[in-house]
Design goal:
The chain is built from twelve helices and twelve strands. By secondary structure, the chain is an alpha/beta fold. The strands form three sheets. Strands 3-2-1-4-5-6-10 form a seven-stranded parallel beta sheet, with helices on both faces. A three-stranded mixed beta sheet has the order 7-9-11. The chain has a two-stranded parallel sheet with strand order 8-12. Bound molecules: nicotinamide-adenine-dinucleotide and 2'deoxy-thymidine-5'-diphospho-alpha-D-glucose (DAU). Nicotinamide-adenine-dinucleotide binds next to helix 1, helix 4, strand 5 and strand 7.
Length: about 350
């Protein structure tokens, strides 16, 4: 598939910014439109290195604004949508479920309806793509140590975040089954890497280790997550977008499971080493705190399908990916400070008002 105008929603966020960079670099003849509302998680500084490229365009908009979505799809003659815009943090969803339903469910529905309305009028509408970026959390929790989530695992979400993502996925599938909208879905495991908002485990803990602040491990730290470098995720997204079969879903993960407490210890060793401290000297920062409500025990992805059918495999091994990530955060303290202080929000609002 070759697309002329790819719309990436949520392109100023963590995964979205890596995806936009990859697409802008790899497809110079394709216009990449980054649509983002710039919530607390959206940060255009993530894209400063490519913001002047001729094939890159930024539009500040809310996916829930149906009229704006209709206009944007028409004006930019969008032929593929990669939909990442969402509220993404589980802890926040426990506090503010309405926001998650609004953005993740209603926002997705607004975009689907706009795509259907605009694309249905065109002869070649089967060559369009609506690609939903989803999560392994929709499958719920694995209770044993052996099983893996596959593409046919049942959806059993537990948190308001995963319930909203699951609901959005069901709408995406419904638009395929009801209106023949050409859709794709992928479900990925936990991502790590540069530009992740420091409310998530890895960047939060790197920042805290640096500042000798406590590391709040939920419960006993026995929950298991399957970690994948964000650049491996966006390479998979590129493959699914260009080669995936319409109507299909693809699981993406690195066969890289870590118990939280073991990951935290690894992170402390790595961060101490890179800071020139004695390895492990910050172990006493670990503080066991009350567990997350409804905390899923284990996620683990079987990514055999995307490997066999589309030839994807991760490039990063975990130790080198983690070291690259820790180094990045240590070298970008200004980014962390701006994000944690909220200063960048003010800065970019001013910049936009002056344009
Ligand atoms: P993020 O929170 O870093 O970024 C989300 C982006 O969406 C932000 O730039 C934000 O401004 C934007 N946004 C939020 N609401 C919006 C709205 N109403 N209109 C337009 N833009 C809006 O999230 P992330 O970690 O990069 O995740 C991106 C997507 O990938 C999400 O859909 C998430 O569910 C999915 N996902 C994330 C992971 C992970 O480990 N982070 C794993 C699997 C899937
Ligand atoms: O699995 C994919 C999902 O991964 C994505 O869909 C979500 O958008 C993304 O946020 C992530 O969800 P998690 O809840 O797994 O990620 P988080 O970094 O918040 O937490 C990872 C694990 O660490 C989880 O078991 C909770 C635990 N944790 C987290 C934080 C922030 C702690 O023990 N202490 C903490 O302070």
């Amino acid at each position: 598939m070759i697309f002329k105008n790819i719309l990436v929603t949520g392109g100023a966020g963590f995964i979205g910014s890596h995806l936009v960079r990859l697409l802008v670099d790899k497809y110079p003849d394709t216009r990449i439109i980054n649509l983002d509302k710039l919530t607390y998680a959206g940060n255009l500084a993530n894209l400063r290195d490519i913001e002047d490229r001729a094939n890159y365009h930024f539009v500040k908009a809310d996916i829930c604004d149906y009229e704006a979505m209709l206009k944007l799809l028409k004006d930019y003659e969008v032929d593929a949508i990669v939909h990442l815009a969402a509220e993404s943090h589980v802890d926040r969803s426990i506090e503010e479920p309405f926001v998650f339903a609004q953005t993740n469910v209603m926002g997705t529905l607004s975009l689907l309806e706009a795509a259907k309305t605009v694309w249905q009028k065109e002869d070649n509408w089967q060559s369009k793509r609506f690609y939903q970026i989803s999560t392994d959390e929709v499958y719920g929790s694995l209770q044993d140590n052996d099983s893996l989530f596959s593409e046919i695992s049942k959806y059993e979400p537990h948190s308001p975040y995963s319930a909203a993502k699951a609901s959005a996925d069901h709408f995406v599938r419904a638009y395929h089954d009801t209106y023949a909208l050409p859709i794709l879905i992928s479900n990925c495991s936990n991502n790590y890497g540069p530009y992740q908002f420091p409310e998530k485990l890895i960047p939060l803990f790197i920042n805290n280790i640096r500042h000798k602040k406590s590391l709040p491990v939920y419960g006993k730290g026995e929950n298991i997550r399957d970690w994948l470098h964000v650049e491996d995720h966006v390479r998979a997204i590129d493959l699914v977008l260009h080669k995936g079969i319409v109507g299909q879903s693809y699981n993406i993960g690195g066969f890289n499971e870590w118990k939280n407490i073991d990951l935290v210890k690894e992170l402390i060793n790595c961060t101490d080493r890179l800071l020139g401290r004695e390895e492990g000297e910050d172990m006493d920062l670990i503080t066991y705190v009350a567990d997350r409500k409804g905390h899923d025990l284990r996620y683990a992805i079987d990514s055999t399908k995307i490997s066999k059918e589309l030839g994807w495999k991760p490039v990063y091994d975990f130790p080198s990916g983690l070291e690259q990530t820790v180094s990045w955060y240590l070298e970008h303290q200004d980014w962390l400070d701006n994000v944690t202080s909220g200063r960048y929000v003010e800065y970019y609002e001013k910049m936009y008002n002056n344009r």
